[in-house]
Design brief:
The complex is a heterodimer. Chain A is mainly α. The mean pLDDT of chain A is about 80. Chain B folds into 2 domains: about 200 residues, Arp2/3 complex 21 kDa subunit ARPC3; about 190 residues, Hypothetical protein af1432 (Orthogonal Bundle), CATH 1.10.3210. Chain B is about 70% helix and about 0% strand. Chain B is built from 19 helices and 2 strands. A two-stranded antiparallel sheet of chain B has the order 1-2. Chain B is elongated. In chain B, about 45% of the residues are buried. The chains are: A mainly alpha, B mainly alpha. The interface between A and B is large, with 60 and 64 residues.
Chain lengths: ~400, ~425
């Protein structure tokens, strides 16, 4: 969605929210809650998908419970705070309306508020400590989360992944949303009987969840950095063209996702692409270099080096078979060969061809020349589709 | 049966009897926890958390079971708090792995240790529990009492564990006190929150239990994934370093030995566990840069010229820059770089850099290289002492003391065999 359209949507939602919220909840309560929504945007919680989620769902949950399910207040305050939140985030983090969380969170909050507002009046008596109210709250939280994930997968964080995988990645963020909604409910339910003690009471589980997800995210980032750094060592030694590993990984992931790979298989493919040439370090030994080793030898050495790390054994296995032909003379297509192996081989060969001066279309043609046994024409077609969508080659 | 085994069995039996006796005494003086389904629920959570402690920080493991214990204590009140929690601790002593493998000594030891710790901790907490119904006004006292008694609980537990380990496994080391202090504070905080959760349960009702469960389940999952990923990360770096080092036959095993010498030296200099670990990792990666050094330089038979040495360092720096881009490795790369700068004549180098340089030099001297033979250990010690201005007298003496204390011998067995190897190496260099 273009930035101008986003701004327009934000302005309209904001005007509608402020108007309805101010009419139904005039006075300082509405202003305070709206300020809370702004501040909530500033403190993102780490999530498995690395996109992060702000504390807005927690504030929406607490507001809904404390205001006895008033959808108007939740949606109004959320919408009213939106432009200001974006401004604050922009000032603090240097990001504007293009940030990943916009507009999935406001939509999620709106769906949550509306669902809760619709379900709660169905009960004769609103009982904060009652199990039925809590069930209605949980159902509304699920609806809000799914809605925000759908929006995120549809228009936010465009990248090499297709929409289906973006939705799966967005849904992987459920733990962060569960912590936020549960901590909010803990606060709202204990507030009448425990007063301000409800803040630390809800804060500890929230803090525990935050710390665990934060540590997980930091470790995941460091692990990713380490794999990339190890993959760059042959480049630092001048044994591989600069940037080959990164470009191959990016292209292999795009091809792999088009082939239907997802989740761990895609992560494995990315790691394999980043490390597939690490075996070239063996060529530093002049005696080995003098034997003019083949690409298959390099793949075998790479696999052996990667395999030293037990956790990367599946990656080592993938690199070991990446040079295998997809079919042999007189035989049908090898059904045992993982599609990821062909995605990796073709991405690497394409990048190598382009790096040595060929144009993209010439590089694809060079792949077709060896499509009888080495390069699967179906996977080459997928590569071509990816390049066409990116405008690198003509349709 | 050896004397150590017999002592272990006697100690385990004594502790088990003490644990059972404590339970029996508590059953006489305290009422049974009511209602039973509530105790079963708390006991299930207590045992599950006790069996699945999570790594919240670098090698700091915390179990949420203590928090469940304090929540239960408040929920059951003065009349049955101690008995309720001591019974939970008794069940937690029987780990499924021990039962499966028919190991009885450890559950017996755990029974005594856990029941005694829980009973003492809860006995300290009882005076802080209100005589009648819990009210919001009781919350500050409950939180403070639970924090204090949780620290007592942990203190008793730590000293029992230390006593048992020293009796049963004299060769093992117990975690240093500095680490335990962090543990005490962490458990004090968890205890305080357990007390407040208990009050919330009494004031609001069981509706808060699923909410607490959801948040802690997510936290537990997150920490478990973190711990697994961290292990995978360290395993990846270690595996790669090993594989890259194996490419050069002359330096195979070098980094592992340098890491070992560095760790032994730093232990003598009383480094904290975190500093020790950082130094060990710096030692493991200090030579990774060599993989980018052109082969003609790395395998040159004979010493390098100044220009060749500068070229080699330049190549190594490129790799160090790549590794410095990894947040986790940046401080280790700094230490490794400090060690290189010391070799180039820098005067103000950190103690970690000096330890690494001394350990590296010792291993290089006691290993045969393409251009010279290994020297004897005594000769290497003499060389280190001559360069005490460079490495620091404290570092050199700590390294020598550590190697002598280990009883291991490095380098050529004597000067004669060193001379023979030296002659062979020179002949090879002349042929090349």
């Amino acid at each position: 969605m273009p930035d101008r359209t986003r701004l327009l949507v934000a302005a309209v939602t904001c005007a509608a929210g402020v108007a309805t919220g101010a009419v139904w909840w005039p006075g300082p309560v509405f202003v305070l809650i709206a300020i809370g929504f702004v501040l909530a945007q500033v403190i993102p919680m780490p999530t498995p998908s690395r996109l992060g989620v702000s504390m807005v769902p927690a504030l929406a949950g607490a507001t809904a419970l404390v205001s006895h399910g008033s959808a108007v207040l939740v949606v109004g305050a959320g919408a009213a705070s939106l432009p200001l939140s974006l401004l604050v985030v922009h000032i603090l983090h240097g990001r504007g309306v293009g940030n990943e969380r916009f507009p999935s969170e406001p939509v999620g909050v709106a769906v949550f508020g509306a669902t809760f507002g619709l379900v709660v009046p169905a009960f004769a008596e609103y009982d904060l400590a009652g199990g039925v109210t809590l069930l209605a709250y949980a159902a509304a939280a699920c609806c809000g989360f799914v809605a925000s994930s759908l929006v995120r997968a549809t228009i936010a964080a465009r990248g090499p992944l297709p929409r289906r995988l973006r939705l799966i990645r967005a849904l992987e963020d459920w733990p962060a949303h569960a912590v936020l909604y549960a901590a909010a409910a803990l606060y709202a339910i204990t507030l009448p009987s425990m007063g301000w003690w409800s803040v630390p009471l809800a804060g500890l589980p929230y803090g525990f969840g935050y710390l665990s997800l934060h540590r997980l995210q930091v470790t995941r980032r460091t692990y990713d950095q380490t794999i990339r750094a190890l993959g760059r060592i042959p480049e630092a030694g001048g044994m591989v063209v600069a940037g080959h590993m990164e470009r191959t990984a990016e292209l292999a992931v795009a091809i792999g996702s088009e082939l239907g790979l997802g989740g761990q298989a895609l992560d494995r493919l990315e790691h394999a692409a980043l490390l597939h040439d690490v075996g070239r370090l063996v060529l530093a030994n002049p005696a080995v270099a003098a034997t003019a080793p083949s690409a298959a030898d390099v793949a075998a050495w790479s696999s052996a080096i990667i395999g030293e790390a037990a956790h990367l054994a599946p990656v080592a296995d993938l690199v070991a078979v990446m040079r295998d032909p997809y079919r042999r003379p007189g035989e049908p297509r090898d059904p045992g060969l993982a599609p990821a192996a062909q995605a990796l081989r073709i991405a690497s060969a394409y990048d190598h061809a382009v790096s040595t001066g060929k144009s993209p279309i010439e590089a694809i043609e060079s792949l077709h020349v060896r499509s009888a046994y080495d390069y699967d024409p179906d996977v080459i077609a997928v590569l071509r589709g990816v390049l066409v969508r990116r405008g690198v080659v003509a349709a | 049966m050896s004397t150590q085994q017999r002592n272990g069995t006697i100690l385990a039996a004594t502790l088990a009897v003490l644990g059972v006796a404590t339970i029996v005494l508590l059953a006489i003086f305290q009422a049974a926890p009511e209602p039973p389904w509530l105790w079963v629920s708390f006991a299930a959570a207590f045992v599950a958390l006790e069996f699945s402690s999570v790594e919240v920080s670098d090698r700091l493991f915390v179990s949420g079971s203590i928090m469940v214990g304090y929540t239960a204590a408040v929920a059951f009140g003065r009349s049955s708090a101690v008995l309720a929690v001591a019974l939970m601790a008794a069940i937690a002593a029987f780990h499924p792995d021990d039962i499966r493998q028919r190991r009885w000594r450890r559950p017996a030891v755990n029974l005594g240790q856990l029941v005694l710790s829980a009973a003492v901790g809860m006995a300290v907490f009882v005076p802080f529990l209100p005589r009648d119904v819990v009210t919001p006004a009781d919350l500050p006292l409950l939180a403070a009492g639970a924090a204090i008694s949780a620290m007592v609980y942990d203190w008793v537990n730590f000293h029992l564990v230390r006593f048992i380990v020293r009796r049963l496994y004299p060769e093992r080391t117990v975690r240093p006190w500095s680490k335990m202090l962090v543990n005490h504070v962490a458990l004090g905080v968890l205890g305080a929150f357990g007390g407040v959760f208990g009050a919330a349960y009494v004031l609001v009702g069981p509706v808060i239990l699923p909410l607490i469960f959801v948040t802690f389940l997510v936290g537990q999952m997150g920490f478990r994934s973190y711990s697994q990923l961290r292990g995978a990360h360290l395993d990846t770096i270690r595996g790669f370093v090993k594989a890259l080092e194996a490419l050069d036959p002359y330096t195979r095993g070098h980094t592992e030995r340098v890491a070992q010498f560095s760790r032994q030296t730093a232990e003598r200099l009383e480094f904290t566990p975190e500093r020790l670990q950082r130094l060990e990792w710096a030692a493991l990666i200090h030579d990774v840069g060599k993989v980018a050094v052109p082969a003609e330089l790395l395998h040159k038979p004979g010493s390098l010229t100044d220009d060749e040495y500068r070229r080699m360092v330049r190549h190594m720096l490129v790799v160090e820059d790549v590794l410095a881009g990894v947040d986790f490795l940046a401080p280790m790369v700094e230490i490794a770089a400090a060690h290189h700068s010391l070799l180039e004549g820098a005067s103000r180098v950190s103690v970690e850099g000096r330890i690494l340089a001394a350990a590296d030099a010792f291993d290089a001297m006691t290993s045969t290289r393409s251009y010279r033979a290994a020297v004897t250990q005594d000769t290497a010690f003499d060389q280190l002492r001559r360069r005490r201005d460079v490495y620091g007298a404290d570092v050199v003496e700590a390294l020598i003391a550590a190697i002598e204390a280990s009883g291991e011998q490095y380098g050529s067995p004597d000067d004669e065999s060193s001379a023979v190897v030296e002659r062979l190496v020179r002949e090879r260099a002349i042929r090349a």
